[in-house]
């Protein structure tokens, strides 16, 4: 069968993996980042953002392909709430959860109530079949596109999956909901074979995805630093240490040997999801870490000669001015090498989405008009904090970055864009919560 996998904007690892599974099942598979699909091809849209459900180009692609008699299936992280996907995009079916095994049967047999792990509309009724068991963690080589070397996601040609699941329970995050809280690690040989294939296809740098990199090889809550170090060493032997990064790590999942290995076998950066400088907000977010632990982790990384980047979330429902000031203080005190700021985004199916549903609009920072310092810019409270923290962070980097007019305009545009997207996602969630 001729199958086109559409992965909007970037070749995600998930789309490449599904491509490899379908290729090995004997199908002719093409991977594309643009919303185009040849007539007669089965379209599989691999969608990873709520915004994809609202994107006019993607909506039109699905509609046109079905009008021409084509079949469209949708999978990926958006499948967490399949009814939203069914009613917003109207595909033939949704692959729910881990889809490696489901997708092969779906392509060959079509949707039916006897196929686990799918959802489809029967008239106006949404049918969600029994959950499919978690997919086997070992898998065929992904379908790696010829132009993978041209892709750069935070500097990496691709983020490869070394394990699934996360022991954390952050309220805003889909990882533990999609993949579970039990960590399942791939065999090292299989990962290294894949790294070699990526390199042969032209990948310049590879990064490790999967929530917290250093959980690779762990059992329950017991970390296995030896497994993670062997993974980094193996990847560096193929790619060269300057072409490996292991960025996302929980502040409570580091040891001295892990940090030494990151310095020796990677580009030498650690990326912490810090989120807030307020312990109250961190507790609400279910981060499982305190401000003190963050400070200690950053200090420890520096002692090991590593660069540290951190992400922060502003505008979490209930975040007070005092909480936000605590975040600004922490940003100043840590003086991180790089900082990423985002406004709290309620991803459907997460506890944060449930909280947003329960939060009155006039108490939700994504909708509350900002009445402080930036009131002339007509921002919401989330947008104002996002914008303000971006500029604030620049003042406290190890090398000061001047906020020029261009930088000011870019930060303002980014904060507003995030605000618009979050309000659109919130409206969507609220619409379905009322059904
Ligand atoms: S630690 Fe990271 S991957 Fe795990 S739940 Fe929290 S944000 Fe998600």
Automatic annotation (TrEMBL):
Pfam families per the UniProt record, alphabetical: Radical_SAM (PF04055)
SMART domains per the UniProt record, alphabetical: Elp3 (SM00729)
Entry keyword annotation includes Iron: yes
UniProt-recorded name of the protein: B12-binding domain/radical SAM domain protein, MJ_0865 family
Keyword S-adenosyl-L-methionine among record annotations: yes
Any one GO molecular function term: catalytic activity
Record key words, sorted: 4Fe-4S, Iron, Iron-sulfur, Metal-binding, S-adenosyl-L-methionine
InterPro entries: BchE-like (IPR051198), CHP04014_B12-bd/rSAM (IPR023979), Elp3/MiaA/NifB-like_rSAM (IPR006638), Methylthiotransferase_CS (IPR020612), Methyltransferase_Class_B (IPR034466), rSAM (IPR007197), rSAM_horseshoe (IPR023404), rSAM_sf (IPR058240)
Native source organism of the sequence: Methanoculleus thermophilus
Radical SAM core domain segment(s): 152-384
SUPFAM superfamilies for the chain: Radical SAM enzymes
Top-level taxon of origin: Archaea
Cofactor(s) in the UniProt record: [4Fe-4S] cluster
């Amino acid at each position: 069968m001729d199958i086109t996998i559409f992965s909007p904007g970037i070749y995600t690892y998930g789309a490449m993996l599904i491509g490899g599974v379908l290729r090995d099942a004997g199908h002719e598979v093409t991977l594309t980042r643009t919303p185009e699909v040849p007539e007669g091809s089965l379209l599989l849209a691999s969608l990873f953002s709520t915004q994809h459900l609202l994107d006019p180009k993607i909506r039109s692609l699905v509609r046109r392909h079905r009008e021409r008699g084509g079949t469209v299936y949708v999978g990926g992280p958006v499948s967490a709430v399949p009814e939203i996907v069914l009613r917003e995009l109207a595909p033939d079916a949704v692959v729910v959860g881990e889809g490696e095994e489901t997708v092969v049967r779906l392509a060959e047999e079509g949707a039916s109530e006897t196929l686990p792990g799918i959802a489809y509309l029967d008239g106006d009724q949404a049918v969600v079949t029994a959950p499919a068991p978690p997919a086997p963690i070992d898998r065929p080589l992904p379908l790696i596109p010829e132009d993978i070397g041209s892709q750069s996601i935070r500097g990496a040609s691709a983020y490869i999956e070394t394990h699934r699941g996360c022991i954390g329970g952050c309220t805003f995050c889909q990882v533990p909901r999609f993949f579970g809280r039990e960590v399942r690690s791939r065999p090292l040989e299989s990962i290294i074979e894949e790294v070699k294939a990526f390199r042969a296809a032209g990948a310049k740098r590879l990064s490790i995805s999967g929530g917290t990199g250093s959980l690779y090889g762990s059992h329950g809550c017991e970390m296995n630093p030896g497994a993670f170090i062997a993974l980094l060493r193996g990847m560096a032997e193929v790619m060269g240490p300057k072409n490996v990064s292991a960025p996302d790590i929980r502040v409570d999942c580091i040891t001295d040997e892990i940090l030494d290995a990151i310095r020796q076998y990677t580009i030498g950066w650690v990326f912490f999801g810090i989120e807030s400088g307020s312990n109250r907000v961190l507790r609400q977010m279910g981060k499982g870490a305190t401000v003190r632990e963050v400070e200690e982790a950053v200090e420890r990384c520096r002692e090991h000669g590593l660069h540290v980047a951190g992400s922060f979330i502003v505008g979490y429902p209930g975040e007070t001015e005092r909480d936000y000031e605590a975040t600004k203080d922490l940003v100043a005190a840590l003086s991180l090498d790089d900082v990423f700021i985002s406004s709290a985004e309620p991803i459907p199916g997460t506890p944060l989405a449930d909280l947003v549903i329960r939060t009155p609009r006039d108490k939700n920072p994504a909708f509350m008009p900002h009445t402080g310092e930036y009131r002339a810019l007509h921002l919401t409270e989330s947008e104002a904090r996002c914008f303000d923290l971006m500029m604030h962070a620049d003042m406290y980097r190890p090398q000061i970055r001047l906020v020029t007019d261009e930088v000011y305009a870019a930060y303002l545009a980014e904060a507003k864009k995030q605000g618009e997207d979050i309000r659109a996602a919130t409206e969507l969630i609220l619409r379905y919560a009322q059904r």
